[in-house]
Amino acid sequence: MKAEQHQFLQLLGQLPARLTAEQAAWVINCQSHDIPVLAAAKLIKPLGNPPMNGIKYFSTMDILEACKDKNWLVRVSATIHMNWAKRNARYTVPAGAPALPANSNN
Questions:
Q1: Cα–Cα dist 43/103, whole Å
Q2: Cα dihedral sign for 58, 18, 67, 34?
Q3: Reduced to 3 states, what is the DSSP secondary structure of residue 89?
């Protein structure tokens, strides 16, 4: 966040009505790359009908309200953990398979 934005929001005394993915991640306390995962899991919903490669904005009110629900927070955490488990599983070696090919330079 730019210094000017930070100063303005401090003077305003409240959050903006809509948040970018990065700002939404700050509110939820996750990484900005987790926001598309949460949106795909329908745990957060972008405002309007943004294009696939366009900037997505999220309702501050909706996110703050959802953050009060412990069950929603559990689902958010589980979704993020499951996403990383799937991504990391691609790099693990299956049981019984050779780990790495032998280096022929030795």
A1: 46
A2: positive
A3: helix
Contact criterion met (CB below 8 Å) for 32 and 22: yes
List pLDDT tens digits, range 2-15: 677 667 667 667 78
What six digits make up the tokens of 9?
Answer: 């929001």
Decide the pairing of beta strands 58-59 and 18-19.
Answer: antiparallel
pLDDT digits 0-9 by tens, 87-105: 888 887 767 666 656 565 6
In sequence order, the β-bridge partners of residue 25 are none
* Closest residue by Cα to residue 61 from 29, 12, 27, 34: 27
Domains of the chain: 16-73 (1.10.1660)
